[in-house]
């Protein structure tokens, strides 16, 4: 069988623990990865895990892409395309999983020969930390394809800026795709003439300094220049306060912070979904911190996480000191966060997933005007950003420094830091 294949992706057929292809639009990365895996799976029995950070249904996976390539390669008689799997006549199997919301399922996946992480830009540190040791079969490989956006995205930092030993890393663009259609080539050239900076990101695979419409763009840039994303140790002489955004079907996000002098030290972050409150209380108890106040959003007085009692009641009954964050509009909360940001120091490693949320938190686009609206986009970055907004509202200092404001349902007062 004679099969056409992009020259820049020939490295996929060479052995390596990590194989990374990144770059702009039109480089045929997904097309090439899928084709290579189907060819290899026809040659020998493989178990292939096709993963991406978010996959709420099989329609959001590479399942359809692989099905198209099976037809194009003339392998329809060899591969059986099932609803949620693709099986080869020699025992090759393609399975599909989301990473962010299926940690237990990913951990239990055994015998994977190749894991292909598609659209990997948004994969979190936590997801990588869970996935990589799961792919542990002798000779197993991890394939990664993505279009980069920010240099500080976890995937770009981990696999392009500081790639693992022996990793094969290739940048590929539309110029490397011999089957790139002329109509899209003209689109790329038109954008290059109209907006060269946008062209470099969209078509040439260059990273942006900040995302378009990023809400905390200036604050993140300033913190980066001041080296405030760094190593921030826990101070055992100061209490740790937590700040929550609640969800069950959606994400629950928690920031851990200490007030030391005139600084707000953000020492930790945790997020997850699909769990009752007991899961998150256990995560708090597993950490070596001495806690102060646990700040919950106002819906904690009526929201339930697997109990007939409110979250506020459950936490109080468990011995935690609970405060309800004062009500404030989203716009006012964002302003509070912008004001507070200049005094925050973040532990870059422990807070990596939360920082990824803050960097990617952006305004929504008005469908009528095509311009950014005044409303934040509700997506995967929202929950960590909302929890940080609650942190800023709770830590506002209308009077003396080094104080935590404790106004809310339980009354007013001041607590020394």
TrEMBL record:
Pfam families in the record: Terminase_3 (PF04466)
Signal peptide extent: none
Top-level division of the source organism's lineage: Bacteria
Stretches assigned to the Phage terminase large subunit N-terminal domain: 17-206
Full protein name: Phage terminase large subunit N-terminal domain-containing protein
Organism of provenance: Methylobacterium oxalidis
């Amino acid at each position: 069988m004679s099969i056409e294949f992009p020259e820049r992706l020939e490295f996929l057929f060479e052995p390596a623990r990590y194989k990374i292809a990144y770059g702009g639009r039109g480089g045929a990365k997904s097309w090439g990865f899928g084709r290579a895996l189907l060819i290899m799976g026809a040659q020998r029995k493989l178990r292939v895990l096709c993963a991406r950070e978010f996959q709420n249904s099989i329609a959001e996976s590479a399942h359809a892409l692989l099905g198209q390539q099976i037809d194009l390669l003339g392998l329809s008689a060899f591969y059986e395309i099932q609803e949620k799997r693709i099986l080869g006549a020699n025992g090759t199997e393609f399975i599909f999983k989301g990473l962010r919301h299926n940690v237990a399922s990913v951990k239990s996946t055994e015998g994977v020969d190749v894991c292909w992480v598609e659209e990997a830009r948004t994969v979190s540190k936590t997801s990588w930390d869970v996935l990589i040791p799961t792919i542990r079969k002798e000779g197993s490989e991890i394939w990664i394809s993505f279009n980069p956006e920010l240099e500080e995205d976890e995937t770009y930092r981990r696999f392009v800026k500081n790639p693992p030993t022996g990793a094969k890393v290739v940048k590929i663009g539309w110029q490397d795709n011999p089957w790139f259609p002329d109509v899209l080539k003209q689109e790329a050239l038109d954008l290059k003439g109209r907006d060269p900076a946008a062209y470099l990101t969209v078509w040439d695979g260059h990273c942006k300094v900040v995302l378009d419409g990023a809400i905390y763009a200036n604050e993140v840039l300033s913190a980066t220049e001041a080296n405030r994303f760094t190593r921030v140790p826990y101070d055992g002489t100061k209490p740790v306060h937590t700040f929550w955004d609640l969800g069950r079907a959606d994400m629950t996000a928690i920031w851990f912070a200490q007030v030391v002098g005139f600084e707000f030290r953000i020492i930790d972050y945790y997020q997850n979904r699909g769990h009752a409150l007991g899961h998150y209380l256990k995560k708090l108890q597993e950490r070596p911190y001495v806690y102060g106040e646990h700040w919950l959003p106002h819906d904690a007085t009526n929201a339930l996480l697997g109990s007939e009692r409110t979250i506020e009641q459950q936490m109080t009954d468990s011995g935690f000191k609970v405060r309800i964050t004062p009500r404030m509009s989203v716009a006012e909360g964002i302003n509070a966060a912008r004001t507070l940001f200049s005094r925050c120091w973040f532990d870059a490693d422990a807070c990596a997933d939360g920082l990824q949320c803050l960097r990617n938190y952006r305004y929504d686009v008005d469908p009528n005007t095509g311009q950014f609206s005044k409303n934040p986009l509700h997506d995967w970055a929202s929950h960590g950003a909302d929890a940080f907004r609650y942190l800023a509202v709770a830590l506002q200092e209308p009077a003396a420094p080094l104080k935590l404001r404790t106004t809310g349902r339980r009354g007013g007062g001041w607590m020394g830091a």
